[in-house]
Amino acid sequence: TIEAKLKNIQYEKIGVQMSLFKKLFGGSAPPEQKAEENEGYQIIAEPQRDNNGYRIAARIEKNVDGKIFVHRLIRADTINDLSEAETASIAKAKQMIDQQGDGIFR
Q: Residue 36: which of 21, 13, 20, 58 has the closest Cα?
C-alpha cells in the first residue's frame, strides 16, 4: 500500500540521518543487552546509568496474537556493577511477572 511505502521511506531517511550523525560525531554499536524468556514473556535488561551506578530497569514484552505488549520497569535501586544491574533487572522483572502476570500491561 501507499502508506506502507511511505513508512519504509521514512525509516530509510531516519537510517541515513543516524548514519550521518555517527560519521560526524562518532559512535559505536550499542552494547548487547542481556535478555531472557520467562513464562512467555521476553525480558530485556536495560539498566540506566546513574550518578551512583546503574538503576535497575528492564523492558518486559509479550506477543499476544501478533500484537506486542510492552511494559517498562524502572526501580530506584542502584547497583555499581553493570553486569550485576542486568542480573538484578531480570530478577525484578521475573518477580513482577510472577506477582502481576498480564496485569502489568494495564
A: 58
Mean pLDDT by 10 residues, the chain (106 residues): 49 47 53 83 95 94 93 94 95 96 92
Question: Any residues with CB less than 8 A from the CB of 97 and at least 6 apart, and which?
Answer: 38, 39, 41, 43, 60, 104
Classify burial at 75, counting beta carbons within 10 Å of its beta carbon; exposed 0-12, middle 13-18, buried 19 or more.
middle
Structure confidence at residue 35 (pLDDT): 86
Q: What is the pLDDT of residue 93?
A: 97
